[in-house]
Amino acid sequence: xxxxxxxxxxxxxxxxxxxxxxxxxxxxxxxxxxxxxxxxxxxxxxxxxxxxxxxxxxxxxxxxxxxxxxxxxxxxxxxxxxxxxxxxxxxxxxxxxxxxxxxxxxxxxxxxxxxxxxxxxxxxxxxxxxxxxxxxxxxxxxxxxxxxxxxxxxxxxxxxxxxxxxxxxxxxxxxxxxxxxxxxxxxxxxxxxxxxxxxxxxxxxxxx
Length: 208
Description:
The chain is of the alpha/beta class. 49% of the residues lie in helices and 10% in strands. The model has no long low-confidence stretch (mean pLDDT 92).
């Protein structure tokens, strides 16, 4: 119910919503029926997982998602032309995989060439841990692995993103081919903003 309310609030505000769920399946279709604009699946390591994402995320003939013609995804107004509604939703819905393990890295070409996949988010936090460098998302090995995923994503004409942890990182990653920016979690952003405010206050009172 909280997910549904958040999606409806986003739609009312003119914002898009990408919902991360644990794995592909019927729950994916349910969230899309609520009005989500896209689905993000973490820890994708095989092409089969990507195919399952498409199966439940798109209507036939691209997938096998069941039809719900009066729901949050059309603001409960119904669909005057059901065939056009289905075609439009198949065009509009975004399906993202997350690559964040060595196995996912090794299988990136098979995963990212799956028909119906729109994008990839590189989970550099989990990837750094999986590669043996926990908490070191800026480690050269993690950066090099991320570049390989970006290259494969762009070769397959996909959207590709990873968490931006500081403003200074933006230029580097955009230069590497990133075409969507993801700015960490709400907690990290609030913490960073609070730290900046505190630094400014300390400067004013001379306590740097």
